Amino acid sequence: MIQKYVCFHLLLHTNEAISVIIEKENVHIMTEGDRTMKVQTIKVELAETLKAKPNGAHLDFGTIFTDHMFLMDYKEGEGWYDPRIVPYQSLTLDPAAIIFHYGQTVFEGLKAYITEGGEVQLFRPEKNFERLNHSNDRLCIPHIDEQFALEALKQLVEIEKDWIPTEEGTSLYIRPFIIATEPYLGVAPSKQYKLMIILSPVGAYYKEGINPVKIAVENQYVRAVLGGTGEAKTAGNYAASLMAQEVVSKDGFAQVLWLDGVEKKYIEEVGSMNVFFKINGEIITPALNGSILQGVTRDSVIQLLKHWGLPVVERRIAMAEIAEAYESGTLEEAFGTGTAAVISPIGQLTWEEKDLIINDGKTGEISKKLYDTLTGIQYGKVEDPFGWTVKVGSN
Amino acid sequence: MIQKYVCFHLLLHTNEAISVIIEKENVHIMTEGDRTMKVQTIKVELAETLKAKPNGAHLDFGTIFTDHMFLMDYKEGEGWYDPRIVPYQSLTLDPAAIIFHYGQTVFEGLKAYITEGGEVQLFRPEKNFERLNHSNDRLCIPHIDEQFALEALKQLVEIEKDWIPTEEGTSLYIRPFIIATEPYLGVAPSKQYKLMIILSPVGAYYKEGINPVKIAVENQYVRAVLGGTGEAKTAGNYAASLMAQEVVSKDGFAQVLWLDGVEKKYIEEVGSMNVFFKINGEIITPALNGSILQGVTRDSVIQLLKHWGLPVVERRIAMAEIAEAYESGTLEEAFGTGTAAVISPIGQLTWEEKDLIINDGKTGEISKKLYDTLTGIQYGKVEDPFGWTVKVGSN
Q1: For the segment B236-292, what is each residue's pLDDT rounded down to a tens digit?
Q2: How distant is the Cα of A187 from the closest Cα of chain B, in angstroms?
Q3: Options 3.30.470.10, 3.30.450.20, 2.170.120.40, 3.30.565.10; which CATH number does A48-204 get?
Q4: Nearest by CB: B238 against A65, A187, A243
Q5: Is there a contact between A187 and B61 if contact means CB atoms under 8 Å apart?
Q6: Contact B83, B70 (CB under 8 A)
Q7: Can you give the pLDDT at residue B161?
Q8: Interatomic CA distance for residues B107 and A229, integer angstroms
Q9: What class of enzyme is it (chains A, B) (predicted)?
């Protein structure tokens, strides 16, 4: 193994005189002016042999992983410690670890893109770490240092940049996640955790470009309810969704559209995406009510629409209202938004045995424009007026 | 390591001539009459050195594990295979394993008791494996062979019988669980699983005998909702419950009482137990509505009450009805039921800032009789008219 230490000084952003007062392993307690800081360096252990890279033209989602991963541990009383980039490897955990029994875990999903000029960039990554901490709050998991985690991610992506596929629409999927590792069968928050980041090269979500999908409105199963964990990006929400997805996929539907868990009337999300409707020129999306995920793509779409001067509104929407708009001919477009597909046009919505064919089953004008603009920004092809992209390896 | 093979023929319960047609490793394909059977033997690898047993008088819950555990794997196309008892050891899993990201997992909890005569017995263990499969259905996990799993459990407990503590109220807690192990980041049921059973010696739930607890009615957080996973014993329900428990325990409450996720009016469960109320001589418990766990102790309590000729009814109960009964002086008793505490009397119920003191904060007559009878049956001290206990090592 090649051992290499990369010194990373998170909290040092002034030119003031710095005194190191304690230094052991990769933790440094320092003073800067009148502040005392704990500075951690990320230890890097590079893999001796590298795996063969896959063919970028034939990539699936989430089956191939890169040569390295990031890890950091947490222990009550000690906080987060031992940040390290190591060869991608199996985890060794006690069978009584809380993650296996009580699902105390949160995760995020984002991507690294390569531009035509060969630059590596991320799309609003700070939003993902902000949301990770929001999820942590709901799951009783200690906060992470968002800035430190982002720097760790950038360092990992920089090491793995040759893994970013260059084919049209491909990217490097990034999965940060935290798991509760204490071996304890009592139902209580863990006193030990692991924060990890793993990377997976992924193909274009739509192999033949953006393409409308068929969605079934779910009337039986519920993904989340107000007071539950719907707003958190946590395992249990996805476990709860598996059955509904299994049932509808047998009938050729790509995803389900989730209604609220209380009245089963109001629209929440579609599959693992947020959802938008264009009715009579106005673009509407369900308001964040506490059981809907605060999508980064959702927020970007709202900002873009406003930037273009288009009317966009966040409010409660009943499924019946969508059906009425369809009947009256004012339902012009529908689309999902998420990291995986970016924009996923909905060509058909099936509710109570009735098929609503939207925009003749074709991709709508707004859906297309949003897709082109967002992917354009992500791949550095169009101007980024919002400062959403973050370069990797440039600092 | 001492290698030992224990041959276990699950499906052979006739004296007919048996022909072995295929035999490789520990899988045997056999014919019996006109049936073809797949018979698996449990491979046993005993630990070379045994851990020191803890002091039975000072046992906590779920922190100490025995010398061995049971494991069995599943692969799509192959089914469940390679059942084995091995030394208790860490699990090695890919960081992309579905359990870490989408919480596809189910579990059970039961106990082994030692009688005064030194016999080892289980309490209705077949109900736990039946419920495990019920949970599997909701979580899209393949069924296990309930009878085979029970035999594996009995074999494991037989090997570990010296770990069963003998002090009053102590027992060996048994945790069967299944985790999704396929390394895949797509949201879909795993194609690989592990079924495991681990054992932990546990102390009496109430160190000073049965003792009433203070319970807070939860108005903000929701554990489960109809259409969700509330009826399944799965990680996400417990992850969702952590925050509410953290909040109320700061105010000295032992547990929360969960209301329904839709109207937040109707009583569902208390903490991780089912709940019963005695009002004006009648014993009432929430009906199984799809979001309440089908407790084995709950079912045993209902059967016992009926056996005693006491009126017991399963129906929807509003929290307001409990408060009204309290005001009118007809709320006579309240108690939770579960494997851990068996019967947990509720001495105080706090709802919307109001304290309902039940039976002067003392253990009620029915609660006491149920506790004595159920624990009496479990420890072989009183007659078992229902045939609930299952002996280990007697066959």
Answers
A1: 999 999 999 999 999 999 999 999 999 999 999 998 899 999 999 999 999 999 999
A2: 7
A3: 3.30.470.10
A4: A187
A5: no
A6: yes
A7: 97
A8: 20
A9: transferase
Which of these, A253, A257, A255, A290, lies nearest to A275 by C-alpha position?
Answer: A257
Q: How confident is the model at residue A1 (pLDDT cuts 50, 70, 90)?
A: very low
To test the contact with chain A by mutation, choose from B100, B198, B234 the residue with the greatest count of A C-beta atoms within 10 A, namely B100
Please, which pLDDT band fits residue A8 given cuts at 50, 70 and 90?
Answer: very low
Q: Are strands A342-351 and A354-357 parallel, antiparallel or unpaired?
A: antiparallel
Q: Please give the pLDDT value at position A205.
A: 75
Say which of B65, B107, B228 has its CB closest to residue A101: B107
Mean pLDDT value across residues A118-132 = 98
Domain ranges across chain A: 48-204, 213-378
Residues B127 and A319: their CA atoms lie apart, in Å, by 41
Contact B235 A235 (CB under 8 A): yes
Are residues A228 and B238, on separate chains, in Cβ contact within 8 Å?
no
The residue whose two tokens read 């952003």 is: A13
- pLDDT tens readout for residues A150-198: 999 999 999 999 999 999 889 999 999 999 999 999 999 999 999 999 9
| Predicted confidence band of residue B37 (pLDDT cuts 50, 70, 90) | low
| Nearest residue in A to B221, CA atom | A227
CA nearest neighbour of A122 among A298, A296, A299: A296
Residues of chain A positioned with their CB less than 8 A from the CB of B185: 61-63, 173, 175, 200
A227-245 pLDDT, tens digit each: 999 999 999 999 999 999 9
| Identity of the highest mean pLDDT range in A6-15, A20-29, B91-100 | B91-100
Alpha helices in chain B (DSSP H): 98-102, 125-139, 146-159, 235-249, 296-307, 319-327, 365-378
Look at B238 and A175 and tell me if their CB atoms are within 8 Å.
Answer: no
Residue whose C-alpha is closest to residue A380's, from A367, A389, A371:
A389
Compute the nearest-CA separation of B177 from chain A (Å). Answer: 8
- Nearest-angstrom CA–CA distance, A232 and A240: 14
pLDDT of B35 strictly over 80:
no
Q: Which residues of B touch A221 (CB under 8 A)?
A: 227-228
CB contact under 8 A, B90 and A95: yes
Q: How far is CA B377 from the centre of its chain?
A: 17
**Domain A213-378 class?**
alpha beta
Could you give the C-alpha distances from B10 to A210, A305, B42, B272, in angstroms and in order? Answer: 53, 64, 10, 34
Q: If you search the block for the tokens 């029970």, which residue do you land on? A: B150
Task: List, as one string, the DSSP characters of A148-180.
Answer: HHHHHHHHHHHHTGGGS--STT-EEEEEEEEEE
Burial class (CB within 10 angstroms; exposed 0-12, middle 13-18, buried 19+) of B193: buried
Minimum CA–CA partner of B230 in chain A:
A240
CATH class entry, domain B45-204: alpha beta
Measure A86 CA to nearest chain B CA, in Å. 13
Residues of chain B in contact with residue A100, where contact means CB-CB under 8 angstroms, are 91, 99, 105, 177, 179, 235
Residues in chain A with CB shorter than 8 Å from the CB of B175 are 96, 101, 185
- Do B345 and B364 touch, CB atoms closer than 8 A? yes
- From the list A91, A200, A271, the residue facing B185 with the nearest CB is A200
For residues B309 and A201, give the distance between their C-alpha atoms in angstroms, rounded to a whole number.
66
Model ipTM value: 0.92
Nearest to A62 among B91, B139, B186 (CB): B186
Selection from B307, B295, B382, B303 nearest residue B341 by Cα: B295
Structure token digits, residue A62: 């989430």
